Amino acid sequence: MAAEEGLLLNVSSLPAPGFARRRRASQAPRGPGTQQRKALKRKFQWPEEGTQPKQKARLSSPQAKKLATGPLRPIKGLGPPKSPPKKSLTECKVSNASSRTSVKTSSLFRNNPEIPDVQRPSVEQVQERVFTSDSFDQLGLHPHLTSTITSVLGMSCMTSVQKQTIPVLMQGKDALVRSQTGSGKTLAYGIPLIQSLQNMEPKIKRSDGLYAVILVPTRELALQSFQTIQKLLKPFTWIVPGVLMGGEKKKSEKARLRKGINILIATPGRLVDHIKSTQCLHFHQVQWLILDEADRILDQGFEKAVTAILNAVNTNSEKRQNVLLSATLTDGVARLADISLHDPVCISVVEEVGGSSSPKARACLSQADRALPASAERDTFAVPEKLQQNITVVPSKLRLVTLAAFILGKCKFEKCNKMMIFFSSCEQVEFHHTLFQTVLAEGLETGGLEPSLLPPLPLVFQRLHGDMKQEERTTIFQDFLQSKTGVLLCTDVAARGLDLPEVTWIVQYNPPASLAEYVHRIGRTARIGSQGNSLLILAPSEAEYVNLLASHKINVSELKMESILSCLVKDNRFVGNRGGNKKFHSTDPQEVRRRATVLQTQFENFVHSNMETVQQAKKALQSFIRSYATYPASLKHIFHVRLLHLGHVAKSFGLRDAPKNLSTRAVPKKRKNQRQKRPDLLRKNWGHRRLAEVLRSEYSSGLDSGTSQVKRKKGPSNLGNPKPLR
Ligand SMILES: Nc1ncnc2c1ncn2[C@@H]1O[C@H](COP(=O)(O)OP(=O)(O)OP(=O)(O)O)[C@@H](O)[C@H]1O
Hints:
Blueprint: H1 2-8, H2 19-22, H3 34-41, E1 55-58, H4 62-67, E2 92-95, E3 102-105, E4 131-135, H5 143-152, E5 157-159, H6 160-170, E6 175-178, H7 185-198, E7 212-215, H8 219-232, E8 241-244, H9 250-259, E9 263-266, H10 268-277, E10 288-292, H11 294-316, E11 321-326, H12 331-340, E12 345-348, E13 362-363, H13 375-379, E14 387-393, H14 399-412, E15 418-422, H15 426-441, E16 461-464, H16 470-482, E17 486-490, E18 505-508, H17 515-522, E19 532-538, H18 545-551, E20 557-558, H19 561-565, H20 589-607, H21 611-628, H22 646-651, H23 687-697, H24 699-702
Parallel strand pairs: 1-2, 6-11, 6-12, 7-9, 7-10, 8-9, 10-11, 14-19, 14-20, 15-17, 15-18, 16-17, 18-19
Antiparallel strand pairs: 2-3, 4-5, 12-13
Bound molecules: adenosine-5'-triphosphate.
Adenosine-5'-triphosphate is lined by residues 155, 157-159, 162, 181-187, 327, 497, 499, 523, 527-528.
């Protein structure tokens, strides 16, 4: 309950910014995060602070000059300390040459909490071998299927998970499959599925209806899996695949179902919609039920939909193979395995490493918990060997400029980087997209670099989240899929299963709510044995997260904020009034600070240039705080809304002060009643935790969970507890 109380805290009861400086150590409050609060008391010291004379910085680009003319009055709110702080030596007066208006920006580098020394316990990371030396020839597949795999898909050797899973599924068994991200799980179920369906006598007809149902948690993943199945089916034209993923008119989906689909890839909510309203949809032929990203399907609030689907399928189909797959098998999957798998084989590729246990898939002892790897094994996650994971610790005020500098450093001043940045809400994605697109992407300058060192394409920002129209989502997804560079700002809607080639960097601007999500997010890079990098941005009060990662055998290196910021010295747009021709060393800390301040000023000027952008920033800030309030209780000692310095956080949204009336509630009042009904599969341990997941990922608005819209029909219903299998 203590955690809940924290969520209901009204902003007015929060100490004003600067409280940490004024309070004596002996008065430190008890409760969550006392250590972190202590950390807030210590000032962040930049090397040589105070040695630089006061300077005026003039915005150089016409864009920036235009932005500097925005309203100058700060939004009054909680932010400012009672007595104005002493002028910092790093304060900048940014002048607009035409209007002679000057905007004073508060110091970015003063009054920050100290960045703690991050202790990174070295742990031996769990690793899985990606490839085997075995070819697909030896599986005894239809020759056309083998040649499709080699010639259409261009693959020769099986991956470990394919080598273990395909024979098991070809024997007709159920399976629970865990292997690291990007290890080829789609083909691990896709190949045996097609092998079995093409072999059926009499030959499958389109009009027979469904033979296989594949459930996935997001629309983009549905599309991607559909495309893979389509490729495998090239020689077997009589088998028809189809996808139902929402966002499309139900009428046209119904028409496609009426014409006949043999392999259906669907998101659970949309499928339930059709179970309830599409007469021609029946399951009596269904021989395969595959749940990809099985743990996510539950987490995401689809449990009721999955129950309904299981009931519909169980009632009608007599004999069926069932497969659950994920890179992370969490506790929730135990119950799902219990009700959906029959005498399954457990496949966990991680067992191959070290040779301590048998590389073969093992028979699961029976159902539920016993169908899963042992608890200790579940608590550790395998991440791709060539994935270099980093963290950086950045005070709240400096987050925005640090993220911007990181993007510029990698995507403007280095060649061929493709980056995904994860945020915890749609509003934040929208806000940062507008901001970066305006301030960072426009008016690209060479930064004094040789043309050969410049990226081949201009810096392009795209966005993907659940509040977007499906058409736009699909276009962006396809664009980003095909592009060689670019920056995709997204929510967790893009965290699972998506196979986006050549992504070189994953940035987590907001830390995820669970380690499973951390693993899936970073798993969008370093796929199928390739190289990749990730960066997790933490506040000083969140540095303990590194220990949490270590306790789950996840190893990270630290990148220093100073070194990330130093690339700003290469960018002449942030030179201020010093003139663009002078060469600076990236190691000059004063110059780096000055440039960071100019960049922050440009952000603030853009945000304050009109009411619409101010509102967008406020909305984004509010959604950030709301999602922050929904971290699970087990992480509240690291992520507690009371540890946030709202004035500083507001600055990271380009706001000059924290707005009034910010709510630190996890749920807006209106929505509170909507979460009364408890899901069927996970009655225990659900409530607040699930809500937290849903809020943080903003799936609720974008994905067709369908569960909240499903109205029970009177009379016999399929939505009750699942019936026993077979
Ligand atoms: N045997 C193989 N040889 C070469 N490439 C392969 C092989 N099998 C799969 N791939 C490729 O590896 C990539 C990752 O595959 P896939 O998306 O199925 O991984 P996954 O394990 O499902 O990942 P995630 O856990 O993130 O969903 C795809 O581009 C796929 O085409």
